[in-house]
């Protein structure tokens, strides 16, 4: 009997699978290049747009924040300048009266030529206290009495002390509604009574035909202290009086310190 043996094909199968694996790897290597190129081109084509968008967003935010900070700084600077302008306007009016006061002192040679004043800070003013009043940080311990006059920036008289305490006092402004103050208006010193209208505003009446012009000073007699500056006049044919509207030459709500003229014994 002739024996038959099955031929072992294992080496042939291994060679086949090895060859197939090499072909597959070669295909992947060859195809990976184009795929990688496509992906790379896609990334490089979209990345600049994304970077530009991010840059634009960052730039817009920086511009917005910068403008916001600039506006806030300008608002603060504007408020500071307004207060300084008010103070300078009052100082200019004070200097305009200086010559007259010097002449008056020369005529009174040998008599007291200056007031005794106490400086005080404003603790509460219009908007924080009622009815055009101020609360100041000086009182009876500093020799302040009820009735003492209160001035701002030298000659700008604003009110009188109405209540005193050891370390504080209440000041009622002349512009308080219902307050009446004797004044003289303009270069001809026309006498009148000023009626308070609140927040540094006044109204007075003078005879028709009186020479009162916008910009004229309104003074309290005896001391040449400025109460306000004429801002408008109004005449009605049927009335024998002319209405004069004036206000303090500074912003009442911006006052941070005052001087109290102590009464002489």
UniProtKB/TrEMBL annotation:
Give the GO terms filed under biological process for this record: regulation of cell shape
Pfam families linked: MreC (PF04085)
Boundaries of every Rod shape-determining protein MreC beta-barrel core domain copy: 127-262
Which InterPro entries does this chain map to? Cell/Rod_1 (IPR042177), MreC (IPR007221), MreC_beta-barrel_core (IPR055342)
What GO terms fall under cellular component here? plasma membrane
Residues in a coiled coil are none
Q: What is this protein called?
A: Rod shape-determining protein MreC beta-barrel core domain-containing protein
Taxonomic placement: Bacteria, Candidatus Yonathiibacteriota
């Amino acid at each position: 009997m002739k024996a038959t043996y099955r031929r072992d094909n294992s080496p042939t199968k291994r060679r086949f699978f090895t060859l197939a694996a090499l072909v597959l790897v070669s295909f992947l290597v060859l195809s990976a290049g184009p795929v990688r190129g496509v992906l790379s081109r896609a990334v490089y084509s979209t990345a600049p747009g994304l970077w530009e968008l991010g840059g634009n967003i960052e730039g817009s935010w920086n511009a917005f924040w910068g403008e916001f900070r600039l506006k806030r700084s300008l608002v603060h600077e504007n408020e500071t300048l307004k207060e300084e302008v008010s103070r300078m306007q009052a100082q200019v009016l004070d200097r305009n009266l200086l010559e007259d006061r010097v002449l008056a002192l020369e005529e009174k040679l040998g008599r007291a030529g200056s007031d005794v004043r106490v400086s005080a800070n404003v603790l509460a003013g219009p908007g924080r206290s009622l009815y055009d009043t101020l609360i100041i940080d000086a009182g009876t311990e500093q020799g302040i009495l009820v009735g003492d006059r209160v001035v701002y920036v030298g000659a700008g008289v604003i009110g009188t002390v109405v209540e005193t305490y050891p370390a504080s006092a209440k000041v009622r402004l002349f512009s308080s509604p219902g307050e009446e103050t004797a004044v003289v208006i303009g270069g001809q010193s026309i006498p009148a009574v000023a009626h308070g209208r609140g927040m540094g505003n006044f109204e007075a009446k003078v005879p028709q035909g009186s020479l009162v012009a916008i910009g004229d000073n309104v003074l309290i007699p005896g001391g040449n202290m400025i109460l306000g500056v004429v801002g408008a006049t109004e005449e009605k044919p049927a009335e024998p009086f002319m209405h004069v509207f004036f206000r303090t030459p500074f912003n009442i709500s911006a006052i941070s310190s005052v001087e109290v003229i102590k009464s002489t014994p």
